[in-house]
Amino acid sequence: VQEPEEKKIALELLETEQAYVNRLHLLDQVFYTELMKEARTGKTVPEEVVKMIFSNISSIYQFHAEFFLPELQKRMEDWNRNPRIGDVIQKLAPFLKMYGEYVKNFDKAVELITAWSEKSPPFQELIADIQKRKVCANLTLQHHMLEPVQRIPRYELLLKDYVRKLPPQSPDRGDAEKALEMIFMVAKHSNAAIAEMERLQNLWVVYQRLGLEDDIVDPSNELIKEGPIQKISTRNNSTSEKYLFLFNNMLLYCVPKVIQVGAEFQVHLRMDVEGMKVRELKDTEFPHTFLVSGKQRTLELQAR
């Protein structure tokens, strides 16, 4: 008898989950545990660094090994009597938010592995030693660490396929569709976490270019636009090169530094966006000019 399509997909979910739990076991119980032991006794690498590399892998491992995999196994053993997995996946979905932290940390983790392998030969040797074991299948630590990053998209694909193949009258239809929607939301959640991390990273780079003035560094700020601008001096009819950074709450009017050590710009003026007005000027001598007036003062500027 040909197995129904949806059962094949459910079995594939179970098989890949089993393999995935083995991979998580390797990451948490072998790499993380042994590197941690080395950090505590050998002092070749700070414990903090090892913790930063593995982020919240222990929680992810325990969740899959102690909850999701056993639940899935029970279901598949009982499939003929009760052909459904949608409700189990609904229980799984909210916990997948844990991945946000791991995914967000992934690039930094890989950088730390590279940096500390150069700094600490014993650290590198221990990793190499574990990688030689049969369980690693000739793959690097970095390669194994990529697996959790790819797991949620994999659930999404398998479940989409499962829902597509379900007969219309299947008892699992309602639950499976709801589960798919939940997984889809979580996948979006982890993409949002990555986007937020990139935003903060870019913001930090901008703050460094500005010389990290206390009152400017604020993680909630959003950079909207930046670029060079000419300042018009009406007194002697000349222009000079300046640079603007527009944030959601302030406009920074800056002077590029000649000697580029440390910051690239010096902030000359900070204008609050609140109450700020911009007016175009019809100046024949200086085209593309406009006035920016705020609580602090008024600037006459020329764009390219």
TrEMBL record:
In Swiss-Prot or TrEMBL terms, this protein is called FGD2 protein
Which processes are annotated in GO (biological process)? cytoskeleton organization; filopodium assembly
Offer one Pfam family short name for this entry. SOS1_NGEF_PH
Keyword Amino-acid biosynthesis among record annotations = no
Please give the InterPro entries that the UniProt record associates with this protein.
Answer: DBL_dom_sf (IPR035899), DH_dom (IPR000219), FYVE_RhoGEF_PH (IPR051092), PH-like_dom_sf (IPR011993), PH_domain (IPR001849), SOS1_NGEF_PH (IPR055251)
Q: What are the DH domain coordinates in residue numbering?
A: 5-193
**Intracellular or extracellular location(s):** Cytoplasm, Cytoskeleton
Offer an example of a GO molecular function term for this protein.
guanyl-nucleotide exchange factor activity
Keywords (A to Z) from UniProt: Cytoplasm, Cytoskeleton, Metal-binding, Phosphoprotein, Repeat, Zinc, Zinc-finger
Query: In the UniProt record, does the keyword Zinc-finger occur?
Result: yes
Identify the residues that the record assigns to the PH domain, covering every copy: 222-304
UniProt organism field: Mystacornis crossleyi
Q: What PROSITE patterns does this protein map onto?
A: DH_2, PH_DOMAIN
GO CC terms of this entry: cytoplasm; cytoskeleton
